[in-house]
């Protein structure tokens, strides 16, 4: 009986956390705009990331750099990340934390898949079914935590980078 009450309370807590995350998500999706002087040489360094995976310079400001390899070749312009002061190191740390949170989120998705396979192959055995269900629940909680932490890191890093 006590185990059933615990499971019901855990389910209610999980639903409340999911609702809270859904309600707070719009607060973290608005990004701060870089407040530096725009003299035409400022840019935001980006790259062709694999599955939008963040890079170490994700939150750093950038500067346009034009290169020309020979007098007859066309010039190319690219955005190079700038580290202007010691405070920019924290932006790099935030980007590394964001990368680790992405890895945690991907791991949580694989754990949900693993739990689903375990649930499917449990063949109705109560212990195996309960263990597979717990794997799925804990993986979903981990995924929600990774997503909310990533949103929080992004919000803080873009706010700090805007000053």
Overview of this protein structure:
The protein is mainly alpha-helical. It is built from three helices and three strands; from the N terminus they run H-E-E-E-H-H. The chain is elongated and about 75 Å long. The protein has a three-stranded antiparallel beta sheet, with no helix packed on it. It has a domain at 2-36 and 85-161. Helix 1 (2-29) runs parallel beside helix 3 (126-161) and helix 2 (88-120) runs antiparallel to helix 3. The model is unreliable at 27-38 (pLDDT under 50).
* Shape estimate: elongated
Query: What is the succession of H and E elements?
Result: HEEEHH
Give the N-terminus to C-terminus distance in angstroms.
55 Å
Structural class based on helices, strands and sheet pairing:
mainly alpha
User: Overall pLDDT, averaged?
Assistant: 77
* Main pleated sheet: 3 strands, antiparallel
Helix share, percent: 55-70%
Strand order across the largest sheet: 1-2-3
Q: Work out the number of β strands.
A: 3
Hey, roughly how much beta strand do the residues contain?
A: 5-15%
As residue ranges, the low-confidence spans are 27-38
Rg value: 22 Å
Q: What is the count of DSSP helices, taking H or I runs of 4+ residues? A: 3
Q: Layout of helices and strands, plus pairs?
A:
Elements: H1 2-29, E1 42-43, E2 62-67, E3 76-81, H2 88-120, H3 126-161
Antiparallel strand pairs: 1-2, 2-3
Helix pairs in contact: 1-3, 2-3
